[in-house]
Design a protein that fits this description.
The complex is a heterodimer.
Chain A (H helix, E strand, L loop, with lengths): L2 H7 L1 H8 L6 H16 L7 H26 L7 H18 L4 H25 L4 H20 L13 H4 L1 E2 L2 E2 H19 L1 H12 L1 H5 L4 H27 L8 H14 L10 H20 L5 H21 L2 H6 L23 H5 L25 H4 L2
Antiparallel strand pairs in A: 1-2
Helix pairs in contact in A: 3-14, 4-9, 4-10, 4-12, 4-13, 4-14, 5-6, 5-7, 5-12, 5-13, 6-7, 6-12, 9-10, 10-12, 13-14, 13-15, 14-15
Chain B lengths: L8 E12 L2 E12 L3 E6 L5 H8 L10 E4 L2 E4 L8 E2 L2 E6 L11 H9 L11 H14 L16 H14 L7 E5 L7 H16 L3 E5 L3 H7 L2 E6 L2 E7 L5 H9 L20 E10 L2 E9 L3 E6 L8 H5 L7 E6 L2 E2 L7 H6 L2 E4 L3 H5 L6 H6 L7 E2 L3 E2 L1 H14 L16 H14 L4 E5 L7 H16 L3 E5 L3 H7 L2 E6 L2 E7 L5 H11 L8 H4 L2
Parallel strand pairs in B: 3-9, 3-10, 7-8, 8-9, 14-21, 14-22, 17-20, 20-21
Antiparallel strand pairs in B: 1-2, 1-4, 4-5, 6-7, 10-11, 12-13, 12-15, 15-16, 18-19, 22-23
The chains are: A mainly alpha, B alpha/beta.
């Protein structure tokens, strides 16, 4: 029986499994939220305008969350996406105010500028082998400097209406941003699930050195992934400017935490353990429904932030429990109790060059923190047969 | 060697067994160590030495029934909560990796094990700490070191001495047992001699030393008595003076069940076409290594730690830099500058690495994808899209070829047994249709049934013309499957053994003889 036949047979069962609460708990939470808010605020929540608002507000965070899926799948963080979004927005606004370039060129150049910053991120992580966590964090600060330089701390409005035309594009009031989000999600789904590049991205994030030896170009993939997340953040920035009609130097950072929450929560959905675009879109919808619903209900402004933080931690905890790709990323390098355990390095970039450890059969073992105590046993020099038990 | 009058027994362990699921590590072993003696513990890899040390240091509990005799009292060996002692008597161990934090100073390393001395204010009294470290160095006749310099600055000998002194410094004067687990493995011979001075000083102070080594010459140099383990059993116990080198080797090697690999046929003709040609390969551990392997040939490479045999595969895969030399694969020169695993694979190399869990399997990915990950681009539709069904069919085909259980390609690979994981890694490498298959410890942690299957797969690949280069510490396996076995020493092949007539004792003997060639042990120093 070929796989094609088998997969045809089990398609129904797979669909059922996909829709089970275990696979898409977030979907049921989302439905529950909609029911709850509809009962709580029957006059304001169950309205078409609310849906439009949720889609509009969620789309921007959703876009950078989708962009994040790519580097996260490849095992690298991009903490610069928030400022990257802000930089893309400010740069576009600055260009329309200070040049007479056509709108399409302004948009293209703004996104390209962010892609170039992403390229620098890639160089820092892949070539200079700096931890992606730290490198992109630092890049965020540099981007903020760029934002302050271009704006002088002022909100840019001059000429911004030139690119505001996009904001008026809509289908039944649903604007461009949610549409871009859906298109990007579909593109990413094809990329991650149905291309060699996508499968190699996951192998990069999961396998590290094993993936390298299997012939996966892990460094090129991580490099490319950081460019993708940066360009997507730049695109999101342009959409923000076109929507708002002005560019504030404060735009950006507030989108980052929800985006990470969505990406990590998304990685517990549909394909648990894998950062995936479907789960991410579902997660951002749920998060935005919660935030918008709470806003409509008139709760204090600190409540939505609290909820986002709690949900991010909950998603991480679930990922940790399942011991999957998530936990590889979020767990700090553990002091190993046994050298035979798979390495759960926080970061491929932080790890030793593979050559040093590939020879570990002959030159046993880096000193481990646990062995500081004299007489504490380190099994790392156990004999090969015994250490794999 | 020293002759000592019969001295009182420090401790006796008896009826020591340890069974792991599917494997017996220790089987009714007895160990008796006299007060103030150096007792050598010998045995091949997997003979149970590590387990015995783990039991002594309290890391692993023995199976019920083990007895410990201290003085006149014999009681069951309870696995106490506190490590580093047996019924109150100190048992300390310096492992081969020393347990020092390289980036920290002597002072810090000493204080990390003994605790920092603080002033009343709670701050560390650095002058007091420095004095303590300096006293320690003087007590054990170490040179005058800068105790605030990072330990990484010092040569290997100093590090070993510091690690030992650190243990002894916190000891006091009560009798006890110091376990030195291959302390000389990373030392050049001249430094080993200096280390023995320290061991003798410790013995003279009345402490017993359990000395683990693979270098037999050291046994006669330093040990008073010897215990030899083989396959979890104590096969010999006696005074070192009563033995010679041949005795030791015979006890260590013994006889064992031969591997049954019907398909191997290492008498089979090999092709005449050269698949792999190394000339003067020099890099970490390798010093001008030459090697010629023909298509269809299975060549074993063996040696003591650091001899260079284990460095061949990672070097050929581009993981460690090459200083000089040439490599040809199927007659085509392999560019060694800027070599990466991807380029090495494209040139026809494939490697099954020794650390399966870390470098072999991709945990989190299903078995099927673990097999096909390296050849996915064969299943493209057009330029970008992947035909997942074709890839899955290929994975299923390989699962059947290597008899991987269970046959479910969607199972996460980490859920499989070690043998089946290794079959998947083997399948991934063979799926790439290599010219040369490099295997490093391919059967580590694999039970005998799966081992035979793995070697049958290797033999079948060789039958189809793949050249195989395999390192294994299991010399019996090598004897069963290899056409030739090359013994490495000092970074190059120094002896060659041929089938038919290959045997485990012959290989072991050749390896143990090769250690007499002084080696530079340069690798540790040049590695990043």
């Amino acid at each position: 029986m070929t796989t094609a036949q088998r997969s045809a047979q089990s398609r129904g069962r797979r669909l059922a499994a996909q829709l089970s609460p275990k696979s898409v708990a977030t979907l049921y939470v989302l439905i529950g939220l909609i029911i709850a808010f509809s009962l709580w605020k029957p006059s304001t929540f169950p309205e078409y305008a609310t849906l439009v608002g949720i889609l509009q507000d969620g789309a921007i965070g959703g876009l950078i969350a989708l962009g994040l899926v790519v580097p996260l799948a490849a095992g690298v963080f991009d903490l610069s996406v928030g400022y990257m979004l802000g930089f893309g927005a400010i740069f576009a606004a600055w260009l329309v105010g200070n040049t007479s370039w056509p709108e399409w060129l302004v948009i293209a150049v703004s996104i390209a500028a962010c892609a170039v910053v992403g390229l620098i991120n890639g160089l820092l992580v892949v070539k200079a082998r700096i931890s992606s966590f730290i490198a992109t964090l630092a890049m965020g600060s540099i981007l903020q400097a760029g934002i302050q330089y271009l704006t002088g701390g002022q909100i840019l409005t001059k000429g911004v209406d030139r690119i505001g035309g996009f904001a008026s594009v809509n289908i039944h009031q649903i604007t461009l941003a949610p549409m871009v989000l859906i298109v990007l999600a579909v593109l990413l789904w094809v990329l991650m699930q149905h291309t060699v590049v996508g499968r190699h991205l996951y192998a990069t994030g999961l396998g590290g050195d094993a993936a390298v030896l299997a012939g996966v170009r892990t460094r090129q993939l991580q490099f490319g992934a950081l460019i993708v997340s940066a360009a997507v953040a730049g695109l999101a920035g342009v959409l923000v400017v076109s929507n708002v009609g002005a560019a504030s130097p404060d735009t950006g950072p507030s989108y980052m935490i929800p985006a990470f929450a969505a990406a990590f929560l998304g990685a517990t959905q549909f394909k648990p353990g894998f950062f995936n675009p479907g789960g991410t879109v579902l997660a951002i919808l749920m998060l935005q429904t919660l935030t918008s619903g709470l806003a409509l209900a008139g709760v204090s402004t600190w409540v939505p932030s609290l909820c986002t933080g709690v949900i991010l931690i909950a998603a991480l905890a679930v990922g940790q429990l399942r011991g999957n790709q998530l936990s590889r990323l979020i767990r700090l390098r553990r002091v190993k109790s046994d050298s035979a355990q798979p390495q759960t390095g926080a970061e491929p970039a932080l790890r030793e060059p593979i050559g040093a450890e590939a020879l570990s059969m002959t030159a046993p073992a880096t000193t481990e923190v646990q062995d500081v105590r004299v007489g504490a046993h380190s099994p790392s020099n156990a004999e090969p047969e015994e250490r794999t038990r | 060697m020293s002759t000592v009058a019969p001295s009182p027994t420090l401790l006796t362990l008896s009826n020591l067994s340890k069974n792991y699921p599917g494997q017996t590590a220790l089987d009714g072993v007895a160990l008796s160590i006299a007060a103030g003696e150096v007792h050598a513990l010998l045995g091949a890899n997997g003979s149970g030495k590590s387990t015995l040390i783990k039991i002594l240091t309290g890391v692993v509990a023995p199976d019920p029934g083990a007895l410990l005799t201290l003085g006149d009292v014999t009681e069951p060996l309870h696995h106490g909560a506190s490590r580093g002692e047996l019924r109150g008597m100190p048992v300390r161990c310096v492992h081969q990796d020393l347990g020092l934090v390289e980036a920290l100073s002597v002072v810090d390393n000493v204080a990390l094990s003994d605790g920092y001395h603080t002033r009343r204010s709670g701050t560390i009294d650095w002058r007091e700490e420095a004095a303590r470290a300096e006293t320690l160095l003087r007590t054990f006749n170490l040179p005058d070191l800068d105790v605030f310099a990072p330990i990484s600055a010092y040569p290997p000998l100093i590090k070993v001495q510091i690690a030992i002194a650190r243990v002894m410094g916190s000891w006091g004067s009560e009798p006890g047992l110091l376990i030195l687990d291959e302390p000389t493995a990373q030392l050049p011979d001249s430094a080993a001699e200096q280390l023995f001075g320290l061991v003798e000083q410790i013995r003279a102070a009345g402490t017993s030393v359990l000395f683990v080594t693979h270098r037999l010459a050291e046994v006669f140099r330093i040990a008073d008595s010897v215990s030899i383990l083989r396959q979890g059993r104590l096969v010999h116990r006696g005074r070192a003076a009563d033995l010679d080198r041949a005795d030791l080797i015979e006890h260590i090697v013994g006889e064992r069940r031969a591997l049954d690999v019907p398909a191997t046929g290492n008498q089979r003709e090999t092709g005449s076409e050269v698949a792999l040609q190394l000339r003067g390969l020099t890099g970490p551990e390798l010093r001008g290594a030459d090697l010629t392997v023909r298509r269809g040939e299975i060549v074993g490479v063996v040696g003591v730690i650091g001899a260079g045999h284990a460095a061949l595969a990672p070097t050929l895969m581009g993981l460690t830099p090459v200083e000089s030399g040439t490599v040809e694969i199927g007659g085509v020169a392999l560019p060694l500058a800027g070599l990466t695993p991807t380029k090495a694979r494209a040139a026809g190399l494939a490697w099954v690495p020794p650390d399966r869990k870390r470098d072999g399997i991709i945990a989190g990915l299903p078995v099927g994808e673990n097999i096909t990950i390296g050849i996915l681009s064969r299943f493209r539709v057009g330029r970008w899209l992947l035909n997942s069904n074709d890839a899955a069919d290929e994975a299923v085909r390989w699962q059947e070829l290597v008899d991987l259980q269970p046959r479910d390609p969607s199972r996460l690979i980490e859920m499989l047994s070690g043998g089946n994981q290794q079959k998947a890694v083997m399948a991934r490498n063979l799926a790439g249709e290599p010219v040369v298959l490099l295997l490093s410890e391919p059967t580590a942690g694999v039970d005998i049934g799966a081992r035979e299957q793995l070697y049958a797969i290797v033999a079948a690949a060789a039958e189809q013309g793949v050249a195989v280069v395999v390192t294994s510490t299991d010399y019996g396996d090598l004897a069963a499957i290899c056409h030739r076995v090359l013994v490495f020493s000092n970074g190059q092949a120094t002896a060659e053994l041929h089938a038919p007539g290959l045997s485990e004792p012959e290989i072991t003997h050749a390896v143990l003889s090769s250690e007499d060639v002084p080696s530079s042990h340069a690798f540790r120093e040049v590695s990043p």
